[in-house]
Amino acid sequence: MPNINYDYIENYLRKLKDIKDEKLRDMNDYAEKNHVPIIERESEEFINFLISMQKPKKILELGTAIGYSSISFAKRNKSIEKIDSVELKKEMAEIARKNISDIGLEKIIEVHESDAYDFLVDLDEKYDLIFIDAAKGQYEKYFDLALKNLKEEGIIICDNVLFKGMVAEDSLVKRRKITIVKRLRKFLKDISEDDRFISSVVPIGDGILLVRRKDEED
Predict the structure, then answer these.
(1) Which helix (H) or strand (E) holds 132?
(2) CATH for the 7-20+32-63+114-213 domain, from 3.40.50.300, 3.40.50.150, 3.40.640.10, 2.70.70.10
(3) CB–CB of 143/161 below 8 Å?
(4) Which H or E element spans position 181?
(5) Is 206 annotated as a binding residue?
(6) For residue 38, which of 46, 47, 27, 48 has the smallest C-alpha distance?
(7) 133 belongs to an annotated ligand binding site
(8) Helix, strand, or coil (residue 114)
(9) 97-147 tens-digit pLDDT
(10) Least confident residue range of 113-127, 145-159, 163-177
(11) Does the annotation list 39 as a binding residue?
(12) Does 159 show up as a binding residue in the annotation?
């Protein structure tokens, strides 16, 4: 469990929303057994709620892993016409493609095997929603570059920004994670002070950052 909420609260919330889809349940079990990091259950529910309100047609996801989050988003939100998902590791990309094919979503979800930053450099498409869940120490680089690909009224969602509580509390920081924590703290501070954006850090799961551009009247 991340050090964001009390364990009993997280356990309660997860019991409220059991995974009903058999394929997603199998993927969740696989991730737990093989120590593959996928989206926290309560974060999954929260983001799916946001998607149901915003109704994005095109989504960019940085960090596919085994394809769990993109499959969850596409299955539960009929507004989604296309998800481009970027994964660096060949093994993970292959597993994700198989999971996506098995569930019949290969026409909606496309997995691109690439470094997320390199992929963004040459990307000229526009997206309604960008979900960043790749290398945590590179979030600010990804965010800055991905802005050119975000539609004017689009939103960017960054997962794991509290990084098991380490970003908020020095006593939790592990020595090998110091650089990542410093970069995440800088990123969150820079975003919160940037007058171009409205942002909010939501302390559920492992911490979610929501960002959108300010309207002229904001």
Answers:
(1) strand 127-132
(2) 3.40.50.150
(3) no
(4) helix 178-193
(5) no
(6) 27
(7) yes
(8) coil
(9) 999 999 999 999 999 999 999 999 999 999 999 999 999 999 999 999 999
(10) 163-177
(11) yes
(12) yes
